[in-house]
Predict the structure.
Amino acid sequence: LKMIKDIHSYMPMNNKTIYCLDTNALYWYCYPRYGMNVNPNRVSEIEVYYNFVDRLVQNGNTIVTSIYNVSEFLNIIEKHEYEIYQKLNSEIKYNIKDLRNMKTERANLKRQMTVSINNVYATCKVLEFAMERITIDNFVGKLHEHKCDVFDYVILDYYKKNKNLNIVTDDADFMSIDGINIFTANPQILHK
């Protein structure tokens, strides 16, 4: 059983409710340059997530994310910064590893990551927990029952065990997991 809430219209009332941010919501709320490479068709949908998380912050709700989401968040920022670099320097063909060896680009990435990670820490309590072998075994053993990647499965398993069931996400794969409440603007989820 799962509950799905459309964040276009859902207004959180109870500021005692804990919300868990998936990586995409974290990215859109905490990374200032997310809009520099975004598909123009998605801008209004992404703004809905930003506004929803902003309401939660203003309401004083506890917002959590996992250390695994933060790790993925930093990887996405590096990829995004690389894409921005490529757009600005389209005549040169560098890969992401080449950029890691450029002092100025590394310093820029550090600046972007520092601002972004500080935004995460100001917004969320970051939950740290060990990935356990039993959860990995369950992920593989129940692969036919869900559509999650291993990180999402481990994170959702932890949230469920700890009764943190309100997940803000754009990820349609979360639909394959029972026992959670999904807060989303994703039309694929909302119109199922």
